[in-house]
């Protein structure tokens, strides 16, 4: 077993641990921090079902962003939806035999790499061109975009330019999941791609990428407009009544 | 036109997003509260010596108590979608008035002290130490936010800068840095019972004066009862309704409605204030303490219904928070909540907004109006932020928009809405909400009103609008002051019940 294989195997175990553990911890924190007052942004749905729809529209369509800025919406939606396709396409490296629908989206998933990169570049351009966005951009915002673009470019190069040994890669991936390590092809593009992905997994729970779980816990979006008919009391607030 | 020592924006009818001008509003600041004002609310009288540690401690405490703060600190991606949504940025061009930048004032500190990335790589993620300069910026810019929540409508994660402003003010108060205007008023409520500081006897005088005025004018013996035990309805209204113009016209309107419908009602000297500035400073404690007066009054007077007069933030507090704070509402399964909820009539929404209440009476034909009496007016409606984005009405989504408009249209013939993107949930703040209605912030108030004034200009020029109705005491006071800066008459603004008052048929008309 080469040292590169061992390094990447350990790296991915670690990255998975940090990603899952970190996000789980954050979700635990969000879920356990009380929301003492009803603060949905009105008009809000009157029922829990309505709230589920509202959150669904936010997550799938980026409804609020659509209302506020069409350019950011176009690029943002393009990036996220492409990323989803790309991620789903990658399932093929972790499942054997490959599910039918994963095989079906394969061609779309491949080309989604380009729309993903285009969306990212659009978002990045706004960070330079719009003075208001430039003002609020931090170095980490640029690095995050660089990281994602890097992942997209290295991945797309392997799909379209210099193919890598996909069969061995899949064996490596399946081996990781079965705790039965298999050699990783030592193709530089692949190693770059994998390193960047691992880095993304590592920073996820430490960065603004927490917007992904955060949106579900945002009280302005996930509360129903029922304050007059239901007494809402946080535990620490209830204590004041004793 | 009023004179000023700053440049009043010119109205073009279209509010353009300004270029970023750093420091453009840095010279605007409200007066600090002195020690007696602070101490009356249980806050330190001046900046405490260990302010740094106490502020960080308070921030940690709030992060554990408010999910909103915790999630909002983490979730922002700096997408910039909110940057052109704040009327104070649109009016001043100061980038720190962009909602995300206002949040960053706190987020930078949060990152430094509460996140791994900020502790290890501060400059990478824009994390900074809490310094005196940061505290000064907090005070300045958290008192340049009217907590109007417009930004929260447009943020993909619903990040509500008002929540962060409230947290910022709460931290500042806890280290002895408070704002004179808001905290002085809170002291008055605790001491005297209302924001204006009107003692009971003065209030009774005013009310009997109003009875005489209405009798002279209409020949009708319309009563303004106070502290009447066993009345059906307890009316909780902002104290400005008792004294200020045009507010008092709406108070007369409410009294006429009760009179015409033949419903027994009362005001309360103990709870002579609907406003609750506890919300402005983000203090749950103050919010609850101020609201408790209403619970006490309701229990003592034995009323069946609680109706709230025209006040924006008061309606948010009443509609969204009263059930939580003091058990005015329904669905309580605890001792404290049930005590009052048993007494109140469950057949009606508790509390009810006066617009809900009047509109229902009109619908049922209990009261009648003469719409032509308002024919000299061409009316538009300014949605007040706290009603639009902080509360509801009528038990239907968007009732807070449709009911006041339906009410206006049923008492008057000429109505025109302002441009769609400036009303309803996208409404622009009057510029004076959230504890900023003070003369020391006049420049900010005038500049922050610009987007609303532009929208108004369009319907004035295009439709001949000569009356802007609103259901908020702060909006009324703010516009009364600010309209003249833009060349409009201050009498252009008034309450919805001022229109009702003009049109309502009293059973004893001369
Ligand atoms: S709450 Fe209103 S005033 Fe405050 S930042 Fe948001 S838009 Fe501006
Ligand atoms: S819209 Fe929301 S996520 Fe985007 S910059 Fe503003 S606060 Fe942050």
Task: Produce a short descriptive summary.
The complex is a heterodimer of chains A (242) and B (510). Chain A is an all-alpha fold.
Mind telling me the CATH superfamily name of chain A? Transmembrane di-heme cytochromes, Chain C
Low-confidence stretches of chain A: none
Counted by DSSP, the helix tally of chain A is 12
Strand content of chain B: under 5%
Oligomer: heterodimer
Into which percent range does the helicity of residues of chain B fall? 40-55%
The backbone outline of chain B, from C-alpha atoms, is globular
Number of strands of chain A: 0
Terminal-residue CA separation of chain B = 40 Å
CATH architectural grouping of chain A: Up-down Bundle
By secondary-structure content and strand pairing, the structural class of chain A works out as mainly alpha
Description:
Chain A has 242 residues and is an all-alpha fold. Chain A has one domain: Transmembrane di-heme cytochromes, Chain C (Fumarate Reductase Cytochrome B subunit). Chain A has helices at 3-32, 48-61, 63-68, 70-90, 100-129, 131-136, 139-160, 166-178, 188-203, 211-217, 219-222, 235-238. In chain A, helix 7 packs antiparallel against helix 9. Chain A starts with a helix and ends with a helix. Chain B has 510 residues and is mainly alpha-helical. Chain B folds into 3 domains: 35-178, Fumarate Reductase Iron-sulfur Protein, Chain B, domain 2; 193-355, Up-down Bundle (Glutathione S-transferase Yfyf (Class Pi), Chain A, domain 2); 368-503. Chain B has 24 helices and 7 strands. In chain B, helix 23 links the parallel strand 6 and strand 7 (493-495). In chain B, helix 5 packs across helix 10 (161-174), helix 18 (354-363) crosses helix 20 (399-411) and helix 20 (399-411) packs parallel to helix 24. The two termini of chain B are 40 Å apart. Bound molecules: iron/sulfur cluster (SF4) (2 copies).
